[in-house]
C-alpha cells in the first residue's frame, strides 16, 4: 500500500515538472521567437493597412452619401445634438412607457398636412382614393392613430379610444353643415361617456367668420377642450384657441417633398415664379403689370389664369412643382386671405417666399392686440421670408437677386429648408404638449 502511494506521488511530481517545463518554454522561447519575427510585424501591418483602408472606405462612402445630404458638414454638430436628444427622449419614453392614446379623425384635407407633413406619419393603403386609410405613430408619451377617407362616417366605425382630435373644414356653408354634424355626433359620444376629451383642428373661414363653432367650445358651455384654428383669428389666445398653419394644398395632391443635393446646390434658371389666378382689380393684377416692366417677366416663370381651379391635373401639378424647384423666389400675393398654400409649398422646394405682408378684408387680425398680424404664427417662428408691403418694391428685389452668387443662394436655401423642417417639428411637439396638458394633466388635479 505504501509502495503504491509512493509511486502515485512520484507520478504527480513528474507530471508537475513536465507541465512547468512546457509552460516555461512557451513563456520564454515562444514570445522571444514571435517578437522579432518580420512575418508577425508584416501581418500586423497588413491588418492595420486593411483596417485603415476599410475605415477610409467607410469615410469615403460617408462623404459620398453626404453629397446628398442638404445640411452638409457644418450641420454635423447640430445633427449629433439632435440624435442625442432623440435618444434621450427615446430612453425617457421607453422608461415612462406610452401613457396616452389619441385618435385623429381626418375629415378635411388639412388633416393630411397634420399627419403626413407635420407628424411624418404614413397611411395604409397608400392609394389616396381609398375609402378608408389609417396610420399610427408615437410622439412623447402619446400614441396617435389616424383615420381618414369617405368611409369614416359618424356611427359607422368602432370607437375604442377616449380622446379624439377631429379635423374639420369650416370654410364655407356646405362644409360648415357637415362639420356641425360631426360635432353633434361627438357631443353625443361625450354625453354617453364614450369620449372624455375632444380637440378640433379647423380649416377656418378666410375672412375669419367662424362664429358657428363658438357654442361648441368648452369655455362657452360646450365640450371642445381645444381649438386649433387657421388664419389670424382674433380668437387666438394661446390657451384653448391656438393658431394652426394652412399648410400645403393636400387636396390638390401636393406631396411630401424630400430635400436633395440638386435642390440645394443647382443653379436655378428662373429668378422668380408665379402660377395662379389673377383677379380683376387685385394686387395680383398690379403684380403682373410690374413683372412686365423692364422684361422681368422673361426672368420669371409666370403663368396666370382668370378663374380659380380647385383641382390640378397631373401635368399642371408637375409644372407647378417644376416652377418652385427651378426658381430662387416664389411670389406670394394675397388672395382672399394673406396666408396661402403657396407659401408652404415654396418652402418645401427651397424657393424663398416673397410675401405681400398686408391684412385682407374681413375679421382676421386685431392690430390693437397683435401688431405682427398678418401671418402671426410664421413671424413668431422666425420665417426667413422676404416681406413686402407693395409690389412696387419687387423690381429692386429682382435687381438685387441678379447680383447674388450661387454660394449665397445655397446658404439661403439651406436656411429656408432647415427652418421649415424645424417649424414642422416644433408644431408637432407643441401640439402634443398642449394636448397632453389639456387632456391628461388636468385629470390629475
Tell me what the structure shows.
With 445 residues, this protein is an alpha/beta fold. The chain is built from 12 helices and 12 strands. The strands form 2 sheets. A 7-stranded mixed beta sheet has the order 2-3-1-4-5-6-7, sandwiched between helices. The protein has a 5-stranded parallel beta sheet with strand order 9-8-10-11-12, sandwiched between helices. Residues 30-68 and 91-95 have low confidence and may be disordered.
Give keywords.
445 residues, alpha/beta, 7-stranded mixed β-sheet, 5-stranded parallel β-sheet, 12 helices
Summarize the structure.
This protein is an alpha/beta fold. It has helices at 2-34, 38-66, 76-96, 110-118, 173-191, 261-265, 283-292, 314-325, 341-348, 376-380, 394-403, 406-444, and strands at residues 100-106, 133-139, 142-148, 163-169, 197-203, 226-230, 241-244, 270-277, 300-305, 327-332, 352-356, 386-388. The protein is 45% helix and 16% strand.
Amino acid at each position: 500500500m505504501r509502495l503504491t502511494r509512493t509511486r502515485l506521488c512520484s507520478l504527480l511530481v513528474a507530471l508537475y515538472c513536465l507541465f512547468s517545463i512546457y509552460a516555461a518554454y512557451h513563456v520564454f522561447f515562444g514570445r522571444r521567437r514571435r517578437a522579432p519575427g518580420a512575418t508577425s510585424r508584416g501581418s500586423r501591418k497588413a491588418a492595420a493597412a486593411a483596417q485603415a483602408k476599410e475605415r477610409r472606405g467607410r469615410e469615403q462612402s460617408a462623404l459620398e452619401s453626404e453629397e446628398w445630404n442638404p445640411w452638409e458638414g457644418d450641420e454635423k454638430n447640430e445633427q449629433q445634438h439632435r440624435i442625442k436628444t432623440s435618444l434621450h427622449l427615446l430612453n425617457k419614453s421607453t422608461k415612462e412607457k406610452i401613457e396616452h392614446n389619441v385618435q385623429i379623425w381626418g375629415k378635411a384635407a388639412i388633416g393630411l398636412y397634420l399627419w403626413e407633413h407635420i407628424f411624418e406619419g404614413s397611411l395604409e393603403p397608400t392609394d389616396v382614393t381609398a375609402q378608408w386609410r389609417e396610420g399610427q405613430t408615437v410622439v412623447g408619451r402619446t400614441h396617435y392613430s389616424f383615420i381618414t377617407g369617405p368611409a369614416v362616417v359618424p356611427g359607422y366605425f368602432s370607437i375604442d379610444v377616449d380622446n379624439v382630435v377631429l379635423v374639420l373644414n369650416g370654410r364655407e356653408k356646405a362644409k360648415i353643415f357637415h362639420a356641425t354634424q360631426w360635432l353633434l355626433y361627438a357631443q353625443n359620444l361625450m354625453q354617453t361617456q364614450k369620449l372624455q376629451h375632444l380637440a378640433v383642428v379647423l380649416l377656418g373661414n378666410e375672412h375669419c367668420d367662424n362664429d358657428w363653432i363658438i357654442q361648441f367650445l368648452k369655455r362657452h358651455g360646450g365640450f371642445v377642450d381645444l381649438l386649433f384654428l387657421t388664419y389670424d383669428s382674433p380668437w387666438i389666445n394661446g390657451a384653448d384657441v391656438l393658431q394652426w398653419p394652412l399648410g400645403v394644398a393636400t387636396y390638390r395632391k401636393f406631396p411630401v417633398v424630400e430635400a436633395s443635393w440638386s435642390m440645394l446646390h443647382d443653379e436655378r434658371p428662373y429668378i422668380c415664379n408665379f402660377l395662379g389666378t389673377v383677379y380683376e382689380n387685385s394686387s395680383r393684377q398690379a403684380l403682373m403689370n410690374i413683372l412686365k416692366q423692364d422684361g422681368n417677366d422673361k426672368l420669371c416663370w409666370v403663368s396666370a389664369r382668370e378663374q380659380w381651379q380647385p383641382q390640378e391635373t397631373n401635368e399642371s401639378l408637375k409644372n407647378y412643382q417644376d416652377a418652385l424647384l427651378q426658381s430662387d423666389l416664389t411670389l406670394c400675393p394675397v388672395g382672399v386671405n394673406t396666408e396661402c398654400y403657396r407659401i408652404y409649398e415654396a418652402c418645401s422646394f427651397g424657393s424663398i417666399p416673397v410675401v405681400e405682408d398686408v391684412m385682407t378684408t374681413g375679421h382676421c387680425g386685431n392690430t390693437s392686440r397683435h401688431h405682427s398680424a398678418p401671418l402671426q404664427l410664421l413671424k413668431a417662428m422666425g420665417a426667413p421670408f422676404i416681406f413686402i408691403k407693395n409690389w412696387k418694391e419687387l423690381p429692386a428685389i429682382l435687381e438685387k437677386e441678379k447680383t447674388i452668387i450661387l454660394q449665397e443662394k445655397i446658404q439661403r436655401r439651406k436656411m429656408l429648408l432647415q427652418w421649415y423642417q424645424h417649424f414642422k417639428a416644433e408644431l408637432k411637439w407643441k401640439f402634443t404638449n398642449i394636448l397632453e396638458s389639456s387632456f391628461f394633466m388636468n385629470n390629475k388635479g
